[in-house]
Specification:
Number of helices of chain A: 4
Shape of chain B: globular
CATH topology of chain B: Arc Repressor Mutant, subunit A
Number of strands of chain B: 3
Order of helices and strands of chain A: HHHH
Largest sheet of chain A: none
Number of helices of chain B: 6
Low-confidence stretches of chain A: none
Mean pLDDT of chain B: 92
Largest sheet of chain B: 3 strands, antiparallel
Distance between the termini of chain B: 23 Å
Low-confidence stretches of chain B: none
Largest interface: A-B, 14 and 15 residues
Oligomer: heterodimer
Helix content of chain A: over 70%
Radius of gyration of chain B: 12 Å
Radius of gyration of chain A: 16 Å
Shape of chain A: elongated
Number of domains of chain B: 1
Strand order of the largest sheet of chain B: 1-3-2
Structural class of chain B: mainly alpha
CATH class of chain B: Mainly Alpha
Order of helices and strands of chain B: HHEHHEEHH
Chain lengths: 103, 91
């Protein structure tokens, strides 16, 4: 079941990359337009990027949590699937947002 | 309409060029070729932005295929103060 955990890590990394791209576009636009709308998008991207970066730290690098997460007997498959589903939904949302923003 | 203007002009990657196109068309209606030349943009880029602005009800064209002239819609004119607020920031 390590593959589910790996998939969750991969999605977190992809989320960070997409959000960095979105943050770049919205940050550049905010610098130019100073509009409330663009500021909202920028803050959203930065916070969601922080959330994913924190997830990577906690689940990959944090010495205590990673041991717990990577031990199958402590985190049964149903819990792994639940964590993966949340990441997958978030990823789908961000992909869609990237598609409409890259116009 | 105001939300559409904020999104299409400041929420997307091509926003800045769309603002330039809108400002040029406000001065006087032009076709895609003239816009590309006057704004020193790639013709295909201009075409793409014109399509997006039309899809969102910001621009309308005269319907003459290749030489079609583009101008702001009545709806966009109605909310032109929003457009000007955005344009001012770019100058």
């Amino acid at each position: 079941m390590a593959v589910l955990i790996d998939a969750m890590h991969a999605l977190s990394v992809l989320n960070v990359l997409l959000l960095a791209g979105l943050g770049y576009v919205w940050g550049r636009n905010f610098y130019r337009f100073r509009s409330k709308h663009t500021l909202g998008l920028l803050v959203f991207a930065v916070l969601l990027l922080a959330e994913n970066a924190l997830a990577i730290y906690l689940f990959v690098f944090n010495p205590d949590l990673t041991v717990w997460i990577n031990t199958a007997s402590l985190v049964p498959p149903i819990a792994q699937r639940a964590m993966l589903a949340l990441r997958a939904l978030e990823f789908a949302g961000i992909v869609f947002l990237t598609w409409v923003t890259w116009d | 309409m105001e939300a559409v203007l904020w999104y299409v002009l400041t929420g997307t990657r091509g926003g800045t060029n769309r603002v330039r196109i809108l400002r040029a068309l406000d001065e006087r209606p032009r076709n895609a070729n003239q816009l590309a030349e006057d704004l020193e943009l790639d013709y295909k880029t201009v075409r793409h932005h014109l399509d997006v602005l039309e899809d969102n009800g910001v621009l309308q064209d005269s319907g003459d295929d290749y030489g079609a002239i583009y101008l702001p819609t009545d709806q966009a004119r109605h909310h032109w103060d929003t457009v000007e607020e955005i344009i001012e920031q770019v100058e």
